[in-house]
Design a protein that fits this description.
Layout (H helix, E strand, L loop, with lengths): L8 H11 L4 H8 L3 H8 L8 H10 L6 H11 L12 H16 L4 H12 L7 H4 L5
Helix pairs in contact: 1-3, 2-3
Length: 137
């Protein structure tokens, strides 16, 4: 049976680059980096580029419409998320630290993650607790 390769940020960036007939050197020149660096991103050795750099490359290749797709792939393959806590309210910092600690403990279920995501995205569905509460008159 033939296996289908799951696309990654790097493999999709490479696909777009090749489709548009650009070299590694072309993309490297746009960002002022080496072609080896772009190659290492495409191969998954280095982390994906930040969204502003990704947009710059996609704009250069006239494929700006691919930004959300690449950013989604980047998010799914990213190992760490850095959040600057400086200038954040104490409640925000406390909540982020609690979330991290509970995740490390394995205390957050998949259903909990779905509920948290619903709250943050503001998209209610059948599992949303708020949608099951009676509305006040």
């Amino acid at each position: 049976m033939m296996q289908t390769e799951v696309p990654t940020y790097g493999s999709e960036l490479r696909r777009i680059r090749i489709e548009r007939r650009y070299s590694l050197k072309d993309l490297a020149g746009v960002l002022g980096v080496t072609s080896a660096y772009i190659s290492s991103i495409e191969r998954g050795v280095k982390n994906p580029l930040p969204s502003d750099a990704t947009f710059k490359l996609l704009k250069f290749m006239k494929r700006e419409g691919e930004l959300s797709h690449l950013m989604e792939l980047e998010a799914h393959h990213q190992q760490n998320v850095e959040i600057t806590l400086e200038h954040k309210k104490k409640e925000v910092v406390d909540t982020l630290v609690l979330l991290r600690n509970k995740d490390h403990e394995g205390a957050i279920t998949y259903e909990d993650w779905l509920k948290i995501r619903e709250i943050l995205e503001g998209v209610p569905n059948d599992t949303n607790i708020e949608s099951k509460r009676p509305k006040r008159l």
